[in-house]
Write a structure and sequence with these properties.
Structural class: mainly alpha
Oligomer: single chain
Shape: globular
Helix content: over 70%
Number of domains: 1
Number of helices: 5
Number of strands: 0
Radius of gyration: 13 Å
Distance between the termini: 46 Å
Strand content: under 5%
Length: 64
Amino acid sequence: MVTFFFVPVLLVLVAENCREKEFKKDKKLRLEWEKKCYLGGTSMHTSQNCENAVRAGRQLLLGG
């Protein structure tokens, strides 16, 4: 039963993979994901969205 619960959640996370460009354009989206990544567990820290959000934030901060 637990397996059936986690499968749709994983599919949603995979389907909502955001690129750096999207995070640079949409500050609200970037801040939302930075918050999720900061408050989430270690599995969130290594997610592609977290990496992209952090990378986009750094580039914007450094003027890139």
